[in-house]
User: Fold these one by one.
Assistant:
Number 1:
Amino acid sequence: DADVTQTPRNRITKTGKRIMLECSQTKGHDRMYWYRQDPGLGLRLIYYSFDVKDINKGEISDGYSVSRQAQAKFSLSLESAIPNQTALYFCATSDSEGSTGGRGNEQFFGPGTRLTVL
Amino acid sequence: ELKVEQNPLFLSMQEGKNYTIYCNYSTTSDRLYWYRQDPGKSLESLFVLLSNGAVKQEGRLMASLDTKARLSTLHITAAVHDLSATYFCAGGGGTSYGKLTFGQGTILTVHP
């Protein structure tokens, strides 16, 4: 079974619709992240959460919101989708500092959600 | 704010040849990560470099970190087709409170 799962894997929607992308993990990690990937731009951080009560904006949070429902679940919402939010979205998890067995803040990625906004 | 730049962005190699991907970063980063992404797939962690002078090797890939020069390299030895993928470096973690900043990625194609 995959350690980090994302649903849906693909989604096509229309401008103005509300969309929720979900992420679940069985790695027992405290930290979770949402990124978007666009060709030629690498990955850019949208939001991150270091525990259930901690939510932080990343580099490109405008137009997005998140919810950390439990240690294992972190959802990303687009309240009113627009075409330039068409991208590949990744969820990632990592352990806390000092508890990674010498691997720093190594992040583990889900399979991604391909979102198209028409 | 940490900025990470990779070069080259596109790399076409012949099988059997050697090459290096460079990753420069703009401010202090006490750790550097390398990831691989196959087309349509997720990112797979390759290397975690946690200190100046760190060198890690796995098969035909070797990564190093020079924190004074703010430079990490990913060296490919005797390339094979299976290494064709996109490679990302990412800096941060640690004093960046766990956040990673990714480079643009290097698309590597290995051909006969």
Number 2:
Amino acid sequence: LAKTTQPISMDSYEGQEVNITCSHNNIATNDYITWYQQFPSQGPRFIIQGYKTKVTNEVASLFIPADRKSSTLSLPRVSLSDTAVYYCLVGSKAAGNKLTFGGGTRVLVKP
Amino acid sequence: NAGVTQTPKFQVLKTGQSMTLQCAQDMNHNSMYWYRQDPGMGLRLIYYSASEGTTDKGEVPNGYNVSRLNKREFSLRLESAAPSQTSVYFCASSKGSEGLDEQFFGPGTRLTVL
């Protein structure tokens, strides 16, 4: 499984865009990149998944450069309720069900 | 739909006691998972079940056993609890049998072993 590196924490203000970058230098050809969000005292929640270039849904965008050695989760116009821990996961179908959640990035949105 | 439910929500055990954590999902998902999360840490996979009748070890299986009772239910048993097993336990499920499928998590069980 590819190892991921994320910042431990980030602060932002309401209405700003938050960008969290995840490094995964040893990503394999068949690996996908998935992001989960976890609020305090709750289980994680799936946000977005991508393989290359850009993926967008109603919650976030995921940018993946051509070399795929990193990816950036973009949260547009955050609110206080976006305060959470965000996990970057890299894995492939070949790895079966063994997903690894690293330490995540703790995002604090201030008023 | 209730999604993924877990019981109990809280539990305090003494060292050496046993207990079973229950998990059920009503989404007709094939795969189910048990994770543990220690304070300030990410989740670590204990066991998973890709389909009814099958179970496989995850990253930290020692000290635990699991049972996939049917498609809906996946239980986690601690035979002889130890203080190192103090943690929050999350159950999850996914539609497919591959780890990349979106996982839906339960609310967690907070376990303290004294």
